[in-house]
Design brief:
Elements: H1 4-7, H2 18-39, E1 44-45, E2 48-49, H3 53-75, H4 86-123, H5 128-149, H6 160-164
Antiparallel strand pairs: 1-2
Length: 167
């Protein structure tokens, strides 16, 4: 056995994988949908930017990025994995369902903290210190940014004890 077979990269077939095309199509479809839907909201009013301007811009960016992704794939197709890690997909979907189920009960800060900690420490195998700091900064930081910076209320805990300490 030579090291050449282990060291060489598989050659590209020159074709874009169907799964990549599906992803590109999904991004393009969502971008075009948002773009067209935002026109009904109005892009500009007499006072300035209308409610549809930001969604219009984001839809245009998403559609443009899908076109750029397609051009990049046609020029140099990316190597795709043999299969999807179904365990990872199941873990993410299940953890998102649990997050949605407990958020109204224990509040945004605690539920997001545990969600981030799970993904960073257990799924991502990060160290304890970096996982705790990132989860704390992500959950508390996002809560304060939305509640006080953007004036958008996020759920707080339904338990009086947790609610009195600001969680």
């Amino acid at each position: 056995m030579t090291t050449e077979s282990v060291m060489t990269k598989p050659t590209s077939t020159g074709r874009v994988a169907p799964s990549v095309l599906v992803g590109i199509g999904a991004f393009a479809a969502v971008g075009v949908y948002v773009l067209v839907s935002s026109l009904g909201l109005g892009l500009w009013t007499s006072l300035g930017p209308g409610p549809g301007l930001f969604p219009f811009a984001m839809g245009a960016v998403l559609a443009a990025m899908a076109v750029l992704w397609l051009l990049q794939e046609l020029r140099s197709p990316s190597e795709t994995a043999e299969g999807v890690d179904r365990g990872l997909v199941a873990a993410v979907v299940l953890s998102l369902a649990i997050l949605a189920a407990v958020m109204d009960l224990i509040g945004f800060q605690l539920s997001m903290f545990f969600f981030l900690l799970y993904h960073l420490k257990l799924r991502g195998r990060r160290g304890w210190v970096s996982s705790l700091v990132t989860a704390l900064a992500g959950s508390v930081g996002a809560f304060y940014a939305f509640n006080y910076g953007l004036n958008v209320s996020l759920p707080v805990s339904a338990f009086p004890l947790l609610n009195t300490i600001g969680l």
